[in-house]
């Protein structure tokens, strides 16, 4: 399914507006992100009148590209200092408020991120079907320090999804800040976007930017998922297919 034009469905950079502070305060504690368990949610006062919409997100990629670290990053958790292979399926809950552009309505998106180790997927046949069951979006990961993981993207996408799947697809390049060791060039990323029509988000390891570091990716997830649901309900026309060269690399430094 073609991705929507950024900012056409939700208000971009709303997290920087003064009016958003009351909403974002519900997912923050002492300027850090709150941790939410599977059965927990932000405590919202009645006057906010905000709906929570829930989506399942599967994080796919080769071992070592940073799937677990990305889940932690998006949730505001501490990023593991050492790599370890995820032995089964791990889930992480992320809440993210957005304001819809047309109606001005505020929604809280609840993303349940599913992360499964590559070896577990290979050993146990039920793992991938479990991750794909009722999935709403898939994040396909590659590492800028591992060119083989980038070359595997097309095979990975073809192997996990079907052309008829109504699933939001985004690509995330990890370890972008390790530019000295970069094995994937900007031209290669641009070419991939042109061929596949899927936006690529570049994620580094610097967490100093706070919400600004994760906002582009979380906003894109929210925007595409909401548009997908509205399209399925017949309330909006389907997005226009992105023309070659129109896709934009989202650089998150």
TrEMBL record:
* Gene name of the encoded protein: cplane2
- Protein origin, superkingdom: Eukaryota
Keywords recorded for this protein, A-Z: Cell projection, Cilium, Cilium biogenesis/degradation, Cytoplasm, Cytoskeleton, Exocytosis, GTP-binding, Nucleotide-binding, Protein transport, Transport
Q: Which Pfam families match?
A: Ras (PF00071)
KW Ribonucleoprotein (keyword) present: no
Cite the residue spans of the region called Disordered.
232-253
SUPFAM superfamilies assigned to the protein according to its UniProt record, in alphabetical order: P-loop containing nucleoside triphosphate hydrolases
Instruction: Say which species the protein is native to.
Output: Chanos chanos
What subcellular compartments does it reside in?
A: Cytoplasm, Cytoskeleton, Cilium basal body
Q: What is its main location?
A: cytoplasm
The protein's matches in PROSITE patterns, at most eight in alphabetical order, are given as: RAB
SMART domains reported for this sequence: RAB
* Protein name as it appears in the record: Ciliogenesis and planar polarity effector 2
A GO biological-process term: protein transport
InterPro entries referenced in this protein's UniProt entry, alphabetically: P-loop_NTPase (IPR027417), RSG1 (IPR039677), Small_GTPase (IPR001806)
GO molecular function terms attached to this record: GTP binding; GTPase activity
Q: Which family does it belong to?
A: Belongs to the small GTPase superfamily. Rab family.
């Amino acid at each position: 399914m073609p991705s929507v034009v950024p900012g056409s469905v939700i208000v971009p950079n709303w997290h920087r507006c003064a009016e958003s502070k009351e909403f974002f305060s519900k997912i923050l504690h002492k300027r850090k992100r709150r941790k939410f368990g599977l059965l927990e949610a932000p405590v919202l006062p009645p006057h906010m009148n905000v709906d929570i919409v829930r989506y399942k997100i599967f994080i796919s990629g080769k071992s070592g590209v940073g799937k677990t670290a990305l889940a932690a990053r998006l949730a505001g958790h501490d990023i593991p200092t050492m790599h370890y292979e995820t032995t089964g399926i791990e889930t992480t809950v992320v809440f993210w408020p957005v304001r819809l552009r047309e109606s001005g309505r505020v929604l809280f998106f609840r993303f349940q991120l599913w992360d499964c180790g590559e070896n577990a997927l290979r050993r146990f046949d039920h793992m991938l079907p479990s991750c794909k069951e009722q999935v709403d979006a898939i994040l396909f990961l590659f590492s800028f320090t591992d060119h083989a993981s980038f070359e595997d993207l097309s095979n990975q996408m073809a192997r996990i999804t079907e052309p008829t799947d109504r699933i939001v697809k985004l690509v995330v390049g990890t370890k972008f800040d390790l530019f000295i060791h970069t094995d994937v060039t900007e031209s290669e990323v641009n070419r991939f976007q042109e061929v596949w029509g899927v936006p690529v988000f570049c994620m580094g390891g610097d967490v100093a930017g706070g919400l600004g570091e994760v906002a582009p990716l979380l906003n894109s997830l929210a925007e595409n998922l909401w548009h997908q649901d509205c399209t399925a309900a017949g309330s909006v026309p389907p997005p226009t297919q992105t023309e070659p060269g129109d896709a934009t690399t989202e650089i998150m430094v």
